[in-house]
Amino acid sequence: MSGKMKLTEVHRAARHERIRKVVFGTSERMRLCVHRSLNNLSAQIIDDTTGKVLFGLTTLNKELRPRIKSGGNIEAAAALGEAVAVKARSKGVTKVCFDRGGYLYHGRIKAFADAARKGGLEF
After folding, report:
1. How far is Cα 83 from Cα 61, in angstroms, rounded to an integer?
2. Is there a contact between 93 and 45 (Cβ–Cβ < 8 Å)?
3. What is the distance between the terminal CA atoms of the chain, rounded to a whole angstrom?
4. Considering only CA atoms, which of 76, 78, 65, 83 is closest in space to residue 38?
């Protein structure tokens, strides 16, 4: 961690470290990791046993960008959740463990998770 991180980001990183002690993605149940910034949201499906990222999507994606007005709101999070679910199912992934990245399960994170569940992912 950098010496110039804001205190809230330091606390989030500490929460994420605690979460990562429990949440671990295997080849049967990969980890769905989400990162939130002020203007965008990104998600990755990760197999922690091999250390490989299966794929990643963000609200800056070419297919998503025309459908959303801003990348940093609940509508964009829901659109990203649906897109991640569709791409994951096309790659053969149906069960994941959700890594909220130390963020509160509220707002954009909750909208993303609900849309991913609605799209067919189990967690």
Report:
1. 10
2. yes
3. 30
4. 76
Residue type for position 20:
R
Residues 6+ apart with CB under 8 A from 110: none
CB–CB of 53/46 below 8 Å? yes
Please give the helix or strand (H or E) that residue 65 lies within, else none.
Answer: none
58: left (phi over 0), alpha (psi -120 to 50) or beta: beta
Other beta carbons within 10 Å of 24: 14
* 55: helix, strand or coil: strand
CA distance 14 to 18: 6
**pLDDT digits over 66-120, tens only?**
999 999 999 999 999 999 999 999 999 999 999 999 999 999 999 999 999 999 9
